């Protein structure tokens, strides 16, 4: 039995973001993130569910797969107040939506452990082997320049200063310069062997977030050497994408552009800078021997770079799944056309 619950679809952007921030939510539950994903193959629902004074929020993304769908809750649900009645009420609403959209499964990826309280095993939820968003991150506390430098590892601090001694300059680029950043990102993706979205994806991201998004460039002798795309939400700035030119890496432009990003975040009132994605553990991959710990190997090289800035590690609870059609889910696991 499900006790009485109140379901409300929130359609006001300011109200939704106020609710999300008050519940400890972050970027992927923000109104503009939902609007952004709607431009790229998703449909967005924003719900507030109340049961016996317990309150849960969820921005749910719907991805159509032929006549079926996948429901995905990125960095959610968010639990404002927990009561014993809330898990069943939340489950009841999710099941209704799953039937309405013919979902083969629902995937939830909570921001906090509190989100797991409305995803209990006894109602069919279980940990998923899928990793959609990074499972761990590093969050750098923001302070004055002295604090930022002192919390860095010595090698990182040295490389930041070296970049500027060698003549690297940084600036906040116009959003209209996205083509330059994208060309650099394509070079980086080819070098490091990862996939990237089409340019419209990045253009839309900058357009929708406006002044809360920054394109930061590090240049050497007038040539673009490194870039970063950063978005602000609440008291946090998030480093979403970065790129660098292979031939200019010796001048340390990636360190200079991160220094510029830290200062941009601080100037926009942020308390934290999220470096967005590190390996699941601090241990190097087994194929990396002691003599080659500095080379790129999966996310290991990225982790060594990011960890130099002195961030605090944060581990997310991980993806939880509610499978409604095991046969179709098994097929989808092989194809996985999610693009989250």
Automatic annotation (TrEMBL):
Organism, as annotated: Thermomicrobium roseum (strain ATCC 27502 / DSM 5159 / P-2)
Keyword line: Acyltransferase, Cell shape, Cell wall biogenesis/degradation, Peptidoglycan synthesis, Transferase
UniProt-listed Gene3D superfamilies: 3.40.630.30
Coiled-coil features, chain-numbered ranges: none
Residue ranges occupied by any N-acetyltransferase domain in the UniProt entry: 168-334
Protein name listed in UniProt: FemAB family protein
PROSITE patterns, per database record: FEMABX (PS51191), GNAT (PS51186)
Pfam families associated with the record: FemAB
GO terms under biological process: cell wall organization; peptidoglycan biosynthetic process; regulation of cell shape
GO molecular function: acyltransferase activity, transferring groups other than amino-acyl groups; aminoacyltransferase activity
InterPro entries xref list: Acyl_CoA_acyltransferase, FEMABX, GNAT_dom, PG_Glycine_Bridge_Synth
Family: Belongs to the FemABX family.
